[in-house]
Design brief:
This protein has 276 residues and is an alpha/beta fold. It has a single domain, classed as Purple Acid Phosphatase, chain A, domain 2, CATH 3.60.21. Helix content is 32%, strand content 22%. It is built from eight helices and eleven strands. It has helices at residues 13-25, 44-54, 62-69, 81-97, 100-108, 138-147, 237-247, 251-259; strands spanning 2-6, 30-33, 112-115, 118-121, 152-155, 162-166, 169-176, 188-195, 198-202, 216-222, 227-233. Strands 3-4-5-9-6 form a five-stranded mixed β-sheet, with helices on one face. It has a four-stranded mixed β-sheet with strand order 2-1-10-11. Helix 3 (62-69) crosses helix 4.
Length: 276
């Protein structure tokens, strides 16, 4: 059986419609969403309504959280003060646009979802705001998956799809002799725990791709073979760009959609998680 995972819709209705049409064309009935239904894009109510109509199981993204809780989460990963101001403007615009029903829906979303030995989160099991980047330290990546009690961890948030396999993982511990132990016990003993294959699968972004082109991305997990397919779906980018400008949102949001990740700003430390 095939299972589709989507993430980071960002109020981009044209992209979401194209991805759902592609999923339907593949004959896939099971879809999971990793959050960030809103933010940056011009159609927050339309996107939330479509997710609700399709009854897609969804976990809460960082934008979904911030719309409900206010901007109390991390602002440290903005690459500049100008980018931060644009983000705040988009937050206020989105909050003003959302219906009470859709606001209540976002508030009701869980932080994570589980399906057998699969765990679904927006950023990481620790926070909606933590980035699991493809080149993060292998031990830290393994800890995120193992700590979640999962064999496969599905995430989004980075807007860059990838599949990372953590093979031949091991944890080595040196155990020192405690005072009072029987004679003959070694002063120190190395113990090694071998871990089976673990995977992190990032679904990329439906509504704001940042992987090098403008195509929306999502992943298909073929559960019978455990194979993973990253799919790219073209959509009417200009339709969304016009709607961004017409809504009075910062025109750079439209410019970014037209060009993709190589022209987007990047944070100096995208892995940082604010503790305040």
């Amino acid at each position: 059986m095939a299972h589709a995972v989507i993430s980071c819709l960002h109020a981009n209705l044209a992209a979401l419609e194209a991805v759902l049409a592609d999923i339907d064309q593949q004959g896939i009935d099971t879809v999971t969403c990793l959050g960030d239904l809103v933010g940056y894009g011009p159609q927050p109510n339309e996107v939330v309504n479509l997710v609700r109509e399709r009854q897609i199981p969804t976990c809460q993204g960082c934008w979904d959280e911030d719309i409900i809780e206010g901007l109390n989460a991390c602002d440290c990963s903005y690459p500049s003060q100008l980018a931060e101001r644009r983000g705040q403007l988009a937050h206020q615009w989105t909050a003003d646009q959302l219906s009470e029903e859709n606001r209540a829906f976002l508030a009701s979303l869980p932080m994570s979802l589980r399906r057998d030995r699969q765990r679904f989160v927006h950023g990481s099991p620790n926070s909606q705001h933590e980035y699991l980047l493809p080149d993060m330290d292998a031990f830290a990546a393994l800890e995120r998956v193992e700590g979640a009690g999962a064999e496969t961890l599905f995430c989004g948030h980075t807007h860059r799809p990838y599949v990372r396999e953590l093979r031949d993982g091991s944890i080595r511990v040196r155990v020192r002799q405690m005072p009072g132990e029987p004679a003959g016990v070694a002063e120190a003993e190395d113990r090694e725990l071998r871990l089976p294959l673990r995977r992190i699968i990032n679904a990329g972004s439906v509504g704001e791709p940042r992987h090098g082109n403008t195509h929306a991305t999502y992943v298909i997990h073929h559960e019978d073979t455990n194979a993973v397919e990253i799919r790219e779906v073209p959509y009417d980018v200009e339709r969304t760009c016009r709607a961004i400008v017409d809504a009075g949102l910062p025109p750079i949001f439209a410019w970014r959609l037209r060009h993709g990740f190589e022209y987007a700003e990047r944070a100096d430390d995208a892995s940082h998680v604010c503790e305040r």
